[in-house]
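User: Sequence recovery, please. Input:
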């Protein structure tokens, strides 16, 4: 389809350039420092676009690249999981900054390496991998993976894959970013935040709204980022970092402050017209309280 052809070349070129400049592709853990692993302050927790409290590491495997808190073996908690799907022609390296941002917030990100993610097979394989690692006493992930709280996200074709994977009973929420059209949201039975870019000329906002309009059986939100085009999320994720982090903190960590960004009469993103050109909540989402405590 046209949107796939338009996306393939720029993402593939960018992936190759980034790989050449960083030496990606090794199958060993590669530490990446963010912020020292100390407890976040209340003010830091409220700024969901700010770096999280965990230093991070990256492990590149044959099927899955893992982004995770570096000292996970010594963690005093289990960490929720986000499975990720790339846009057409892309690899996890293209989205490195966003995936590291989530890891710094305490998530384990299992990113499918495939540049053709639409079927979601490799994303599900990431869950299977972490299930095995969590049960392996010789793994750094032993008993540190929260397999009861798993979200799915992705960009473009990977956004469609996040919708496909949303039918998996292990998934608790989905967050498709500018999703391509080849998915059926009617099979999803978990809350969804569907993100569009106001100036996206590849996956038009109307295509994302079509998913939102069809999602009348689940709590669903539609958010259109002001001024964003199809590649705003690539590299520095900019305005995508904060709302995606807040959504996953709300649904996978039980963060009540993050939840208030989306639900209740004081809905934070609803009032932020500088960031959002359009925000919609369906009747099921409108019926959810700002806090669950």
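Assistant: Recovered sequence (293 residues):
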């Amino acid at each position: 389809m046209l949107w796939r052809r338009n996306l393939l070349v720029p993402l593939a070129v960018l992936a190759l350039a980034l790989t050449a400049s960083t030496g990606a592709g090794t199958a060993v853990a590669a530490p990446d420092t963010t912020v020292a692993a100390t407890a976040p302050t209340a003010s830091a927790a409220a700024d969901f676009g700010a770096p999280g409290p965990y230093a991070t590491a990256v492990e590149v495997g044959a099927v899955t690249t893992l982004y995770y808190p570096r000292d996970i073996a010594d963690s005093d908690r289990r960490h929720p999981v986000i499975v990720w799907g790339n846009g057409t022609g892309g690899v996890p390296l293209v989205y490195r900054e966003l995936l590291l941002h989530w890891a710094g917030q305490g998530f384990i990100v299992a990113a499918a390496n495939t540049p053709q993610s639409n079927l979601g097979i490799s994303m599900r394989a990431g869950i299977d991998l972490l299930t095995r690692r969590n049960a392996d006493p010789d793994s750094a992930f032993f008993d540190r993976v929260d397999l009861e709280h798993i979200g799915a996200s992705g960009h473009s074709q990977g956004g469609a894959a996040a919708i496909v994977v949303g039918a998996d009973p292990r998934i608790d929420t989905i967050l498709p970013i500018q999703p391509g059209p080849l998915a059926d949201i009617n099979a999803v039975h978990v809350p969804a935040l569907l993100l569009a870019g106001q100036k996206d000329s590849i996956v038009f906002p109307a295509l994302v709204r079509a998913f939102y309009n069809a999602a009348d059986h689940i709590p669903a939100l539609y958010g259109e980022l002001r001024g964003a085009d199809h590649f705003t999320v690539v590299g520095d994720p900019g305005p995508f970092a904060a709302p995606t982090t807040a959504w996953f903190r709300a649904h996978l960590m039980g963060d009540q402050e993050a939840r208030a960004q989306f639900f209740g009469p004081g809905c934070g993103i609803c009032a932020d017209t500088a960031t959002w050109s359009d925000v919609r909540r369906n009747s099921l989402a409108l019926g959810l309280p700002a806090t669950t405590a």
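Residues 45 and 52 are 8 Å apart (CA to CA).
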